[in-house]
């Protein structure tokens, strides 16, 4: 999806991609950073003059859906929209409208009646999960939506004798009843507004660096890493596993500590038992705290699962140096919030024996307690990226492709 936009500093027009966060104005050169939020977009209308526009809300979800069944973990990529208000007068989903039109951010000045979503997004996620899991063997031990984009897309309509789609100028409803009154639905002017801040280090004022789709920006001057928080930048705890030599690229991962109940998994010794690893438990492993690992970048679902599983089973003990590495960094494109969604799934991917352990998964609770962003070195050779110590391997073309997932 493309978004028509104006530079928040000088007002020059620009086009953003849906995944863009860091925006460098081609005119005034100021770097602005889009604060994270549930973004609200609208589709441009082409209604005849004088029609009172009604903006109907759709929840939009994009991400990877994993379903853990007794025959293994199934995954698929989901990109769907669904009514934000249950109504028989408006289309159930957006269909292809959002792919053929440039979007705009909603702003309080936009004219028209913006109907307020009445369906909480969690309920819509449940509807979508049910729809996609209908054909899977039951029981399903865990379902996780990861790497999700959640946004609200307003599509314009107007009402005459029928409800008309104001993008295509076509009726979408049957004849409206006499007493149809759109103003009886909750709505008004939009309250939401997109927020940008200048991409400068809050500590030292230096320009922050990152790719345009980065969720974390680096200050090379004072060696800090920042992510967007509530209305401002927040400092991230980060580090890297050092390695000597050339042809290296560092990929970002989240290392997460959580309180786990339902399955005993507090130490490396517990992990050896729970995953039935072919190892004899050493006394010191009982003191070695268990951590989850997950990629901090968008990647295909099968790779996401393998990476999370292999790293979590490896429990890397290498020293994490709290500095930025010299070698190139791959941008953070998957947030900690999304990574946290994957923890139960990761656990489901390694418990053994599955017959007795998988039924315990629905009753486990994982409360994330703390996290750190860790850059791990990969060897670059042709199109292959490899990390032999943790048995990770990735094709660069697939990585580039996954940016748009
Ligand atoms: Zn500008
Ligand atoms: Zn700084």
How many β-strand stretches? 23
Q: What is the SS-derived class?
A: alpha+beta
Query: What small ligands are held by the chains?
Result: zinc ion
Summarize model confidence as the mean pLDDT: 92
What percentage of amino acids are in beta strands? Answer: 35-45%
Please count the helical segments.
8
Structure commentary:
The structure is a single chain. The longest helix is centred in the last third of the chain and has 14 residues. The chain folds into two domains: 151 residues, no CATH class; 166 residues, no CATH class. Helix 4 packs across helix 6. Helix content is 15%, strand content 35%. Strand 22 and strand 23 form a beta hairpin. Strands 1, 2, 5, 6, 7, 8, 9, 10, 11, 12 and 13 form an eleven-stranded mixed sheet that branches. Strands 18, 19, 20, 21, 22 and 23 form a six-stranded mixed sheet that branches. It is built from eight helices and 23 strands. It is an alpha+beta fold and 405 residues long. It binds zinc ion (2 copies).
